[in-house]
């Protein structure tokens, strides 16, 4: 038994990846993004499920994440787009990983190393975070085209506002991306695999799928755009077992700073989760947990290891050992919690850490 756990439903991930593959069709390659330990779902278990369900490629942020996937026995195509120019790339170079090139300096490093490598050139199209600026496109394209040991698989770029479907900036970026592809081809690069779309663009902008899409959040069953429903199944549930139920009297206050005072005689449930486990202290006032299908408010400060839940007069007889759902199946969704807490569902699913144990469900036919 675990006091605090994330239950990861591998069948939900399989379902979502199948759906996404169906949505993009046979001519577009589906990259499932598994950075940050598969958005907190555990990449070692999740990656094989995604590949079996139709992922053509896996995407990592850091090259170290991609190298780790190889050491887990994953032999599928991998792309990784974050590395520092001074980094030792030998493991990545011997692991057949497509490496993202976000600057002239990065390009020069790969040219100088003289080891065969496949790259995706990450071009700046309007997010202004990490990509080759337009002023240096020509130089980078020529440099990589002239290096016989470098194979440019194509261009990639990232959208800043795809989660706001009406935002015209997405079209501005798409135009810029098309211009970059045209310029790269004029420079002699074939660029067979170009990719721009993240989850929101994959779901809402089929015209921006290009040759490959890079989907993260939707694989884990969450909608990146409020109000849409693509019949995805959320894969993660964060649950805590109640460690104590105790009475509190009207006028007594609870937890650090005594910021909450009982309005009437009642009961508190103590949950073994705190900010050391990834529950933000700032969530005070926003969190409702679900116990036996009923929703109860968290009250008082979040401590390092504990929070308390106001059971009122405990009409349903909640007891120690009962399970409280922080988010997920049987409780409020990660999106509802994110909305209440003023953040995004991406952050919520990456939160559980510390003493949280992962428990996997489904995926038994693997
Ligand atoms: C470069 C890049 N591509 C794709 C993704 C996947 O985004 P999403 O989770 O919205 O699908 C990310 C994640 O932020 C990313 O950084």
UniProtKB/TrEMBL annotation:
Annotated GO biological process: D-alanine biosynthetic process; peptidoglycan biosynthetic process
Gene Ontology, cellular component aspect: cytosol
Catalytic activity, as annotated: L-alanine = D-alanine
Main EC class the enzyme belongs to: isomerase
UniProt superkingdom: Bacteria
UniProt family annotation: Belongs to the alanine racemase family.
Lineage: Bacteria, Bacillati, Actinomycetota, Actinomycetes, Mycobacteriales
InterPro entries: Ala_racemase, Ala_racemase/Decarboxylase_C, Ala_racemase_C, Ala_racemase_N, Ala_racemase_pyridoxalP-BS, PLP-binding_barrel
KW Protease (keyword) present: no
Domain Alanine racemase C-terminal: 235-361
Entry keyword Methyltransferase: no
Organism: Corynebacterium ammoniagenes
Pfam families in UniProt: Ala_racemase_C, Ala_racemase_N
UniProt-annotated binding residues for substrate: 129, 304
Cofactor entry: pyridoxal 5'-phosphate
Keywords linked to the UniProt accession: Isomerase, Pyridoxal phosphate
Protein function: Catalyzes the interconversion of L-alanine and D-alanine. May also act on other amino acids.
Name of the featured protein: Alanine racemase
A GO term, aspect molecular function: pyridoxal phosphate binding
List of catalytic residues: 35 (proton acceptor), 256 (proton acceptor)
């Amino acid at each position: 038994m675990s006091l605090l756990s994330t239950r990861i439903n591998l069948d939900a991930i399989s379902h979502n990846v199948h759906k996404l593959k169906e949505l993009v069709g046979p001519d577009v390659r589906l990259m499932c993004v598994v950075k940050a330990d598969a958005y907190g779902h555990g990449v070692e278990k999740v990656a094989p499920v995604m590949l079996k369900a139709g992922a053509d490629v896996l995407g990592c942020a850091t090259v170290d994440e991609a190298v780790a996937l190889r050491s887990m026995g994953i032999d599928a195509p991998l792309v990784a787009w974050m590395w520092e120019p001074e980094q030792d790339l030998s493991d990545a170079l011997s692991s057949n990983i497509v490496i993202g090139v976000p600057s002239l300096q990065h390009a020069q490093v790969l040219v100088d190393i003289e080891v065969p490598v496949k790259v995706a050139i990450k071009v700046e199209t309007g997010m202004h975070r990490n990509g080759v600026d337009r002023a240096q496109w020509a130089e980078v394209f020529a440099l990589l085209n002239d290096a016989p040991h470098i194979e440019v698989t194509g261009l990639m770029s990232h959208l800043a506002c795809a989660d706001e479907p009406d935002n015209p900036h997405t079209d501005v970026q798409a135009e810029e991306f098309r211009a970059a592809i045209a310029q790269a081809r004029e420079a002699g690069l074939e660029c067979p695999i170009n990719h721009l779309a993240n989850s929101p663009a994959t779901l809402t902008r089929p015209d921006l799928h290009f040759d490959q899409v890079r989907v993260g959040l939707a694989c884990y069953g969450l909608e990146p755009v409020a109000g849409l429903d693509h019949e995805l199944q959320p894969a993660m549930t964060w649950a805590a077992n109640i460690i104590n139920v105790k009475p509190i009297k009207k006028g007594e206050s609870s937890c650090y700073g005594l910021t909450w005072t009982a309005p009437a005689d009642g009961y508190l449930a103590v949950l073994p989760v705190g900010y050391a486990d990834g529950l933000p202290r700032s969530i005070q006032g926003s969190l409702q947990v679900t116990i036996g299908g009923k929703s109860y408010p968290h009250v008082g400060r979040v401590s390092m290891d504990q929070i308390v839940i106001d059971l009122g007069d405990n009409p349903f007889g909640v007891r120690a050992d009962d399970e409280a759902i922080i988010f997920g199946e049987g409780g409020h969704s990660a999106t509802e919690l994110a909305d209440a807490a003023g953040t995004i569902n991406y952050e919520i699913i990456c939160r559980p850490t510390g003493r949280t144990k992962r428990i996997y469900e489904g995926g038994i036919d693997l």
